[in-house]
Protein 1
Amino acid sequence: MQQIINFIVKNKNGFTFLFLFVLSIILTINAHSYQKNKYINFANGVTGSFFTLKSSIDDYFELKKENDILWSENERIRNELMHLKKRVDSNKKTQFTSQANTHFNVIKSKIISNNYRKNYNYLLLNKGLKDSIKVDMGVISPNGIVGVVEGVSNNYARVIPLLNKDLSINAEIKKTNHFGSLQWQGNSPYYSSLLDIPRSANPQKGDTIVTGGNSLIFPKGISIGYIEKFQLNQNTGYYKIKVKLSNDFTSLSKAYVINNEHLKEAKKLLKKQKNDQ
Amino acid sequence: MISSRVHIVRIIFWIFLQIIILNNIFLFDIATPYLYILPIILLPLNINRQLFFLISFIIGISIDFFEGTGGIFAASTLVIAYLRPFFLRISFGLAYEQMTIKFHEESFLQKLSYASLMVLTHHTTLYTLEAFSLNNLIMILEKTLYSGIFNVILIMLIFNLLAKNK
């Protein structure tokens, strides 16, 4: 016993180092496991209020650009609205309105901390449980899809954006409706990759990529980006497509959180199915 | 006593500078200045080892806290804190053994070698843990090299500025 204590006292520097090092490695591993990130949550009061202050200052420098983005979004939405009004008018007796996607609604919010340099990036929103934001809600910005809510505290929400290697999203080519999964490869914040598109899809440069319908999180048809380059893997017969993201992730500021009112119900059903098996 | 207060102020200053400004810089889409390690480089030589580890850990974990990265910065600062005596011995030789280093009076080459060893070790650990796998070794090396060189240049510039002030 005496010898053990002597050994520890003699090597106390090494042990201090080892203890702290193992602690930080554990924290790192924890940060990589979903929803278990409780020890040091990014979305807590201290960092949250700090980033709120910081973004309220940053906002002044971005006002003009932000205005332009919102302006062009307004233009697009107005066009869509007129188009829809026309369709509703001409289809008054058909069931058009009842078919519309009414179970999705949006909550506006602000991105107060933005990361895009790392392989596993996260964003922070200034809305949380208080504003009825829950885990697994989709997040979009005026220019297209941003990511998925991954953790919430009372006042803040942590978002896992497209620029995170852990996220994979159901996406399709708008023209042909072939779908695959969108996954970031971790290099440039301007590009992502669309995998598992079958040979028959015949993609063209410049084709629009939108969210697919096979997702509970996003409604079908939200813009993701455009095809920049594509390459057919002869062995598997699947395309690997390089997608230019329509969102500029290096300058995000406003976002909308999408609330799918059927999410809970659908999840319950899936869970039940799993239990039955 | 005054000297330790200077170090605490310096640490807090660089942490805040890192969080507020430097973390948002992303030069040529590859290099970020991580100047928060400056106070670790400049802490006194005869400091208690355990206290030194603890300070480095706290500096690292506070950056992690605001970056939402778990513990990668803490691990990196700990590694350079652990290896600092070796780097000092390699760079300054006899002056370190006798504890007579006057940092601002040492030659440019010695300072450069010390700073590069610290920065490159820090960056290697940081980017390896950040990638969280060894599949992208080339990318890790690339990031380490570019960002490391950029950091060494910045740190050498700051050394010179500090020396001029004296």
Protein 2
Amino acid sequence: MKILPAALPLALVPTGFGLVCLLPGSGTLAVLGEPTSGAAIGLESTPRELPAPLLQIRAIGSRSALQAKSIGVGEPVRLGQLLSAPAGPSSQAQGLIELVLPVDPLLKSKASPEQFRVWYDCYSTPDLVRNHVRLRGLTQFLKFHLAEDLDQLVLEPEARRMLADPEALLAEIKWLAGHLAELRKAPFVGALPVVVGDDAADFERQFRSLGLEQVEIARAEIEHAFRSEKERLVEACFQAGLYTSEFRTRASVG
Amino acid sequence: MRVVNCGDGLTEERTVTLGEAQYPLFHALLRKKLWVGKHSSAAWKADWLQLRKAGWLELSDPE
């Protein structure tokens, strides 16, 4: 945990779910914990050590120190609203990002592929897809608002913890993308059962509950399963002589 | 269908018929494939997005 120097121009906003505060001109980016929890996650780096996204945010924060804005995840939140907002459950109404998975591995950017695999094997493909989409959404959110006068981000604790280690965040997104690509190649790994005796109504109900990206995965899995089974059966039938001869013709020369 | 060289100067087109009674898994997969294909078409996705925009679906954004 990093103790911030008291002399820095630091503004604590008691939103109940913490904030990311950029300190104009200080060369410091601080990720603060919940005011009521007493637990804080700090990051202080020189510009050379900061990863590119955070470095850009810091620079923008310095440029717009006199026109501070607060931007909440989902909907823009004005600084005045935050200052007057009571801490606690009311913060849930601001459309915060909800992550499916714990983010502890994100703080271990040097985790091996095996460690990531063990971690993620506990989750279903839809959960992996959902988390991947949300992680990408978080990075896109940051990139989008880089063009704005960004001084403060109001984030839920999990997202705040991810931002404390952007290298790990990017590594996780990259690893997840590769892992999902591997899963797409393998048959029968989806949430939807593709075995004999499935209740059709249950299958359709599950399918209708999926997101668009999950739909694509489910469709690919089912088509893959269908092709595999078709090839297996056709080959077995030919090998066993279970075929019909419909047309005989003279073989072409050559 | 598979074209097989019979070795006697002729080729033969051989066809396999996979009946549902003998191959229920294949037909179950076929039904699912057709159903999923129908429910993941471009028109279906457009409806899905419209429903989501209207607030009827609370799912992750496919970007």
